[in-house]
Amino acid sequence: MNLIARTADTRDEGTGTTPLPPDHTQAILEVTKEVGAVLKASGCPFALVGSVAAYAYGIPVRLQHDTDFALRAEDSETVVRLLRGRGIQIVEPPEDWLVKARSGGEHIDLIFALAGRAVTKELLDRAWTLPVDSVHLPVIDPTDLMTGRLAALSEHHCDYGALLPVARGLRERVDWDRVAEETRDRPMAVAFLYLLRLLDVLPSDPDAGEGADRRD
C-alpha cells in the first residue's frame, strides 16, 4: 500500500484528524472486567456508567472510546493504589472530578461526579447487578444513566442521535418523571424529552411517564 492509500485509511478526509477504529468492543469489555475485578475486591462501592453501562442493558452500541466507572471521591486513593498494583497506568488529569487510567491500550475513566453532581453512596446503592460479557458487575440504574447523559448535554455537545437508541432501549425501565424533574433546568435535556414524546417513545402527556420496577 502506498503512502497516499495509508493516509486515506488513517485520517479523515478534509479534517486532518485521525478517526477512531470502528469498534473496540471486545477490547474495552476485557479492560472493564479487569478493572471491575479490582473494584469488587476493594470493597469500595462503584458502578459502571457511560456506553458500557448502556451495553450491559442490551443497547446495541459500539464501544470505541473508553470504559467508565463511577465511585466516591473518598475511595479514589484506595482504588488508584490497587489498580497500580495490577500494573494499570494511572494518568492524573487536571480535572478534580475524575482519574484516568490505561490498560492494554484502552482508556479507563474513574469518575467522582456525573454532570457536576458528586457520586454518592445512594446513587451507587441503586445500581443493578448485570452480566457484562459473563462477569456480573454493578451498573448504574437506568434512570440515573439517562439523567446523567441528559444533564451532560450542552450547546457544544448535543448528540441526540447517540442518545435515541439508549432512550428507546431503556424506556420501560426509566422513571421519566424523575429524569424530567432532575433536568428541568437543562434546555437541551428538556428539548430531548420533548422529542421523545413527538416520536412516541414517551407518552404525549409529560406527566404520564411510568416509573420502572427495580430488578435485582
TrEMBL record:
It comes from Streptomyces omiyaensis. Pfam families: NTP_transf_5. InterPro entries: NT_sf, NTP_transf_5. Residues 1-22 are annotated as: Disordered. This is Nucleotidyltransferase family protein.
